[in-house]
Amino acid sequence: MPVRIRSRFTKDDAVRFISHLDLARTVERAVRRAGLPVAYSQGFSPRPKIAFGSALAVGVTSSAEYVDMEFLDEVAVDMFLEKISDNLPSGIRFTETVEIGPEIPPLMSVIDRASYVITGNLEQSQDLGRSVQSILDSEVIWVERPGKKQTRRIDIRPWIFSLEVLEEGVGVGSIYLLVQTGSRGNVRPREVAAHLPLDKSHIRVHRSGLFIARGSRLLSPLDVAQC
Questions:
Q1: Domains of the chain
Q2: DSSP H helical segments within the chain, as ranges?
Q3: Which residue would you say has higher pLDDT here, 82 or 183?
Q4: Could you say which DSSP state residue 102 is in?
């Protein structure tokens, strides 16, 4: 009987420059090498039934990525974590797995919030806290994004839900950012960082969470899977 599982995994510094496509291929190869009974799609070019959450940009690390997998037979959670870990390269680590029912919707259709920590060198004589407050006080924040036919101009301010200073020391600053992600709207961390007094050539971005908004509550995809 087919079984679906949902896992959380991390992407560390060692692999932060691989693309989302390469990440997906790496996980697929690990599943095959581990001998796990992954299910495949039908059709001319069958693909393993492995579906990731919101794609992570190249150069960004993460402590909260998610992936759904479907298997042909029952797979014990502990055994899955052990086998997948033994076949993954350094820098990718699966940390938690739960079984999910057929009624649980795909990750991409429900994830709508993402949190980040942005760290960088402070530009000389600049106040990070004041810049953060300026963003929060803004009614609109326009960004331009290249399209297939023309550049689009988008106001991202409605999609910034939280922005706060985590650290502002001698020459270094970091902020926490909570934004919209998914098909209804999306904010790229560097679009916000462009308005901060940080050295843009040495910014580090870390995704600290992916969430599903339920009113004022933020649930992780694993929380939803276990409701």
A1: 3-105 (3.30.70.580), 111-225 (3.30.70)
A2: 20-33, 77-86, 107-110, 128-137, 189-193, 221-225
A3: 82
A4: T
What CA–CA distance (Å, rounded) separates 32 from 57? 25
Angle, in degrees to the nearest 10, between helices 77-86 and 20-33: 110
Instruction: Provide the 8-state DSSP code for 48.
Output: B
Show the tokens assigned to 133: 């407050």
Burial class from Cβ neighbours inside 10 Å (0-12, 13-18, 19+) for residue 26 reads middle
Residues 6+ apart with CB under 8 A from 118: 174, 175, 177, 189, 192, 193, 196, 198, 203, 204, 205, 206
**Strand partners for 152:** 145
Q: Locate tokens 């200073």: which residue?
A: 165
Q: How far is CA 134 from the centre of its chain?
A: 26
Question: What length is written for the chain?
Answer: 227
Distance of alpha carbon 153 from the chain centroid: 24
- pLDDT tens digits along 25-59: 999 999 999 999 999 988 888 899 999 999 999 99
Judge whether 95 and 161 are in contact, CB under 8 Å: no
Residue 226, helix vs strand vs coil: coil
Question: Is the Cβ–Cβ distance between 48 and 30 less than 8 Å?
Answer: no
